[in-house]
Amino acid sequence: MLKKARKERLIWLDIMMTLMALALMSYFYYGIRSAALCGICVAVSLVAEIISLRLMGRHFKADDLTCTSDALIFALMLPACMDYSIAVIASVFAVVVAKNVFGGRKNMIFSPAAAAYVFVLTSWGSKLLMFPEPHSRLGVFEKPDTLTHSASYSFNISGKLDYTDFEVLLGNFSGPAGSVSVLLLVISAVILIFRGDISAGAFLGSIVGTGLFAFIAPVGSSREDSLSYSLVTNMVLFASVYIIADKRIAPKREYFAIFYGLFVAVFAYTLVLTTAKENAIVMVSVLFTPVALGFKNLEKKISLAEQEELVKETEAADETAQEITEEAIVNE
Amino acid sequence: MYLVNDIIAFLAANLILSQALGTSTLFIAADSRRKLVGTTCCITLFTTIGSAAAFLINKELPSGYKDLTLIFYVLTVGLLYVGLLTTAYFITPERFEKIRKYIHLSAFNCAVIGTLFTMEQKSADDPSLMTLKEYVKFGFEAGLGFITAALILTAAFRKLNSSKVPSSFRGGPAILIYLGIISMAVYSLK
Amino acid sequence: MNERRSSIFDGVLGDNAVLSGLMVISPVIICGNTIKNAEALICAFSAITFLSVLIASFVPKKLPYTVKVIIYALISSIVYLPVKNAAEKFYPDSITRIGIYFPLLAVNSLIILQSEARFFKMKKPRMLASLTFYIIGFDAVMLLTAFIRELLAYGTIRSKMADVNTLISGLGEPFGGFILLGLMCGAYRKIRSIARKEKNTGSDLNVSGK
After folding, report:
1. Could you give the number of structural domains in chain C?
2. What are the two backbone dihedrals, phi and then psi, of residue A198, each rounded to the nearest 5 degrees?
């Protein structure tokens, strides 16, 4: 139990470190406002967590700090110029409605960050999908004069990206504050997989599913462009690492996790292809929560059946051993 | 490819996720596998056969008497109710006691009567839907929608009723919020 | 005396039809997003439910359950006709917006199921009092939900502008209704359990005081 708690904290620490790197990158592109947005989301989530746990009659423990990583994931999916009031409401929603109402971190159903993102999308969609240009470096209370559509939007419409590969790798294109830094995301994914912090199966399923479909049915005319850009736009990489591969949500057995990731990715990619829906993968991950839960129920049944079989085998082995011993005694 | 869009359209037209019809019946249906099968089958029967009867009512009822539609729908569902109970009694008398509670549960609920009214409204907006085939298809789809919603809920039912959920939210309130978040995801993809 | 009184008032606080029994929730979720809609629904629900249960209480109890349920539904669908005519005069816009949820009020579970399970087991005066409080309980929840949703989703109170800075438009949608009603149910249960605990503690103290 103690080992499990320690493991939980280490996972949180690893995820926080990779998220902090992404937050730093977003600070580099959008200035202090993006850092303030992250800080507000984290602070509000922490307060909401403490208050809601208190109302549930529980005490705040170090393990409950996972709310801060969820808050940071959510903040990095927002445009750097997002209203603070919206970020505050959505952070409270993530902690209270999407998590603690269902029993908190011990009984997770939805990814709080993904649920909060969908909540913001349904209520303030126009504000969520308009972004400042990179390097606009906004002050804490500053609003940009002009906002543009994201690179994902133009890719979904035209199948092309007007950025060099180097710019794409560094995340130097308009989009959510912290979820476009492709190089950092790849490094984060590798670290988190090797540290066992995220579900490797779900991550691979999601990436393979998107890549395969992007190649078979390309968004634009070029298969290569479709393959590479489909993975880096629409928050596919970010969602694959921090939402779909979230160990609290994804199935535990790797082969189930692969299928879960694959289903989400294929469904989301098809939506992007046919309806040009921006960041569909986040919405689909919320919609596919019952699938993840179904897989988990199946896993429990399989484990129970395996345990029963093991008990039967042990009993049979005991009986045989007893018979042999009795025979030996009789022979003597 | 377009199957995905059809799935989204199917979920978006779902009686429970988009119209909250039959939600309380759903709570009972998702409780166990037996209840799920029993209730969803009965609801699908009621919506499908009821839609066929609703077509006749909407076609034959003079426009000046449209206010009486509800009475005719109630009579239709009532006749179906008695008919299904009688059929179940004669076909499987030994299982009748078990089956009849699902029929009681499914007869007069919002999912069934709501389906009939929704189809009436749709066919009034688009006269090309005023055919028996379209009515029956819609009734059957409504039943399938109920089954889908029941399956969505069944996947999380144990977690939503777990002792880890705060006692004031355990069961009903948690189910409502769970359905709300799923409905929100469907809405965002519409 | 205390017990009797509390059971009559149950419909409002102790055993609210919507928040506790999760009955008649679809109109609250779908149509309870503006106060005007809520007013129209409240009037129609109150009239249909009260008259239907009152008339249905004269149906012979010896009839089989299935027949009784069909008769109850028929009674309420007949009561629905004059109520609909009256509502069309007083709330013409709201009735159009409410759409199919208006006739669905006539087959609500308070009339079809609860009348048999709860109300018809009581004596008439007590039944009428209890029914009235159940109806008031529904009306209160409907009005409260509509007030919160209209204020936060549209920034208005009965179509008049209110000073709300950040509007949550999603609250006006069906999913907003699901989530808000779920939160209200949870809050209601919490308050009820605290109240009951305090009541029990009070009665325990009285007993020990003796």
Report:
1. 1
2. -125, 165
